Amino acid sequence: MPSRKDRGFEHPIPSEITPRAVYEGRRELLRRMAAGSAGAALAAWAGRDALAGVARPGKLAPLPGGSSTVPGAMTMDRPTAYEHVTGYNNFYEFGTDKDDPARHAGALRTQPWSVIVEGEVHKPRTYALEDLLRLAPMEERIYRLRCVEGWSMVVPWVGYSLAELIRRVEPTGNARYVEFHTVADKTSMPGLASRVLLWPYVEGLRLDEALHPLTLLAFGLYGEVLPKQNGAPVRLVVPWKYGFKSGKSVVRIRFVEKQPTTAWMAAAPHEYGFYSNVNPHVDHPRWSQATERRIGENGLFQRKRPTLMFNGYEAQVGQLYAGMDLRKHY
Ligand SMILES: Nc1nc2c(c(=O)[nH]1)N[C@H]1C(S)=C(S)[C@@H](COP(=O)(O)O)O[C@H]1N2
Ligand SMILES: [Mo]
């Protein structure tokens, strides 16, 4: 994302390849969702350490119809192959090359895990992962993910709205923003030795953004436990903002009164603002944001896709920014 040039994804592998275990796990999950027992299935995940880069070939069947009732949560765009979703990542704690996370994230221990929820709330609490998995019914959400670097993917996540958690801790009248701190573990994360960012990686949202039903607390993708390179065991997904707003491997959620300074704002304030809504009309100082490259659609004649306002979620989230100058609040 910073000064590095995006090298693109060069593997000549057909985009339909998805590990069989992943496909079968997803099918089982969807079956259980239909039967109303997905919570139990997902709770069983807590007893396992997350995957890191599985690679057993198998065919991905046509995706079944949507399971989320949240408007906008089921894009009809074709999901990006599992292999790309889990092989082309940004997770700088493991290094800045796109394949560093898949190569190194296996060392991260995701179990036991807990998330501290604190600050301006009436009911602060430390949640064990097991409690989070059972907190609310899981659903599948198929979201576009747009990285500020100019590429995008489509990912079938599994999780529930962050609002479910927020409701339970009861924010006080002073809570106006939410900070997300992600794990910083020197023993497993070689990237922490670099000075690319200040660690731990901190991100933030305005409280109304955090409460929006599209803001997802994700525990899985493709019907399986989140691979470590994608932010196991729990991460945020904010689909109308550039990908870096979606912190991985979250360990702390803090409700605050003042707008937080995020890791990327601190690193390059002129390039990365607090809002970072996907916006084709506001360019990054060093490149255009008008178009994007959809990972997996590479080939000699790949056409760039036009980038959509709020990443295509304008109908759902546009009102959050009514009256704001989006050039100023980039
Ligand atoms: N902790 C942490 N979270 C992070 C990042 C990171 O470097 N560290 N990278 C962000 C960026 S730039 C993007 S585009 C997305 C990528 O998510 P994915 O690898 O699951 O596609 O994760 C975001 N979350
Ligand atoms: Mo990104």
Question: What is the gist of this entry?
Answer:
With 330 residues, the protein is of the alpha+beta class. It is built from 9 helices and 12 strands.
Descriptive account of the structure:
This protein has helices spanning 20-35, 38-45, 82-85, 100-104, 129-134, 162-169, 207-211, 263-267, 314-317; strands spanning 114-119, 125-128, 139-146, 151-161, 177-182, 202-206, 216-221, 224-225, 235-237, 250-256, 291-294, 305-306. The protein starts with 19 loop residues before the first helix and ends in a 13-residue tail after the last helix. The protein contains nine helices and twelve strands. α1 packs across α2. Residues 2-20 and 51-66 have low confidence and may be disordered. The strands form two sheets. Strands 3, 4, 7, 8, 9, 11 and 12 form a seven-stranded mixed β-sheet that branches. It has one domain (14-320): Oxidoreductase, molybdopterin-binding domain (Sulfite Oxidase, Chain A, domain 2, Alpha-Beta Complex). The chain is α+β, with helices and mostly antiparallel strands and 330 residues long. The relative contact order is 0.18. The ligand Nc1nc2c(c(=O)[nH]1)N[C@H]1C(S)=C(S)[C@@H](COP(=O)(O)O)O[C@H]1N2 is lined by residues 1, 89-93, 145, 147, 182, 201, 230-231, 243-244, 246-249.
Record the SSE blueprint:
Elements: H1 20-35, H2 38-45, H3 82-85, H4 100-104, E1 114-119, E2 125-128, H5 129-134, E3 139-146, E4 151-161, H6 162-169, E5 177-182, E6 202-206, H7 207-211, E7 216-221, E8 224-225, E9 235-237, E10 250-256, H8 263-267, E11 291-294, E12 305-306, H9 314-317
Parallel strand pairs: 1-10, 4-11
Antiparallel strand pairs: 1-2, 3-4, 4-7, 5-6, 5-10, 7-8, 7-9, 11-12
Helix pairs in contact: 1-2
Molybdenum atom (MO) binds near residues 1 and 242.
